[in-house]
Specification:
Length: 250
């Protein structure tokens, strides 16, 4: 099983790794794409005020542009611990036992605008870049889409895509019987399902944690649905190519 997660715009700082090593990242087929993105970010970062504007950073977060100045030598930590925000707080990967973290390493991939698809335990630096960021001479959509789509098409087994639409657009998952895009919905009094926005991230984090703790390895979406029912999740087929995770409105 491969679980695709979105990144978070905010990142935890620091790390014990001694610098970004592209050879240590999963999916070496993306190495040259990573080099190109890093070079474009380095060029943008020569003028930090301009970089902050290009990255759409407001006054409170403008200083984050400086994170991109020396990415090659910046300290690293596992991607699943680097990313912050609601989904990752709900997942709380740092508190998982070793077998569950090993499952994350085998089964979870995070979609990064800077580095493309990275494994959950891949060592990555703190940075600031979004799916819609503008880089000099490089369109992130055109840059990542073909390479990542081809990579995901070659993945065997169940693929469950928990990414936001913006990050899914940087490399759509394959359209096939054992692949699905997850939507988090709630049901109103009229029985109709409605998509959740902010609160969908916490639900995705809880689902990811439960999968890791169970060390699930479903051979099909039907097996995944059966596991979800046994684990107390309301997960069901939605529109074509989608699964709905039904939660109560907070």
């Amino acid at each position: 099983m491969l679980l695709l997660l979105p990144p978070s715009e905010t990142k935890r700082r620091g790390g014990s790794g001694s610098g970004l090593d592209l050879a240590a990242l999963s999916f070496p087929a993306l190495t040259e794409h990573r080099r190109a993105t890093l070079a474009a970010v380095a060029e943008l970062s020569r003028d930090l005020p301009a970089a902050a504007r290009a990255l759409k950073l407001g006054p409170k977060s403008a200083a984050d542009a400086a994170l991109n100045v020396d990415l090659a030598d910046a300290p690293t930590m596992p991607a699943i611990d680097r990313f912050d925000g609601v989904l990752y707080e709900s997942l709380d990967a740092a508190s998982l036992a070793a077998p569950a973290r090993a499952w994350l390493g085998r089964s979870v991939v995070v979609s990064s605008a800077l580095l493309g698809l990275v494994g959950a335990l891949d060592p990555v630096p703190a940075y600031r870049l979004s799916a819609d960021s503008r880089l000099p001479g490089l369109s992130l959509g055109r840059h990542w889409r073909a390479a990542q789509t081809e990579l995901l098409a070659g993945v065997d087994g169940v693929v469950l895509d928990l990414r936001s639409e913006a990050y899914a657009g940087l490399g759509p998952a394959p359209v096939r019987a054992d692949s699905a895009y997850l939507r988090v919905v709630t049901e109103g009094a009229d029985g109709r399902a409605r998509a959740l926005n902010h609160f969908n991230k916490a639900a995705k984090g809880r689902l990811t944690r439960a999968l890791a703790e169970s060390e699930v390895a479903p051979a099909s979406l039907d097996e995944l649905l059966a596991w979800a029912e046994s684990a107390g999740f309301v997960l069901r087929r939605g529109a074509v190519g989608e699964l709905d995770l039904v939660v109560e409105q907070p």
